[in-house]
Amino acid sequence: MIISFITGFVLCFSLNCVIGAQNTYLFRQGLINKYVFPLAFFCFLCDVILISLGVIGMNILINQDLLNWFFGFSSACLFFYGFLRAKSALQSTHKLNETIEVEGSFVKSISGMAALTLLNPHVYLDTVILIGSVSLKFNSFFKLTYLFGAFFASLIFFFAIAYLSRSLSSFMENERIWRIVDGLTAIIMFIVGYIMLQSSHWI
């Protein structure tokens, strides 16, 4: 139970832990302390819905004959993500996107967050495909704890960015720290990718 929970938590947290448009938008709204809770909750709710769809959908759509091929595909995606994070850790490309501006009204703020979240194809790859596919390794009970681990990671991540943005501002602008984060994320992606590759029986 603990292993499945930790797997869900670590995978979801590391996939979220990038400097993307969604995280930058939430961070900047946190800095001005405007609509912090609803925006953080919206991000968390999107993760809950998409991750749930991924876990449920994968278990319905992927039969035993396709399982090994899908494990191999997921492993390739995770290795690719790990490569990108490792490359990012070695390059000086870590900065918040200055072009993303915060919105004034509540409706505009939520609409802006919805666009940055739901129109980003990587969101669906991370939540529905990758997190959903790793859930195939667990049976029904452990699948549930895996799901709650992912939910808990999402909850902590988005609310930490929103409410600790002022405290984290120096952290978010520190290139060295982001290199360490990217390096650790790459290691996690490689480890999970290798486990998935073993499950595919390709090695």
Oligomerization:
single chain
What percent of the residues sit in helical stretches (DSSP H or I)? over 70%
Total domain units: 1
Largest sheet: none
Order of helices and strands: HHHHHHHHH
Summarize the structure in short.
The chain has helices at residues 2-16, 21-31, 36-61, 64-90, 106-118, 121-134, 140-163, 165-172, 175-199. The chain is mainly alpha-helical.
Descriptive report:
The chain has 203 residues and is mainly alpha-helical. It has one domain. The chain has helices at 2-16, 21-31, 36-61, 64-90, 106-118, 121-134, 140-163, 165-172, 175-199. The longest helix is centred in the middle third of the chain and has 27 residues, at 64-90. The radius of gyration is 17 Å and the shape is globular. The model has no long low-confidence stretch (mean pLDDT 82).
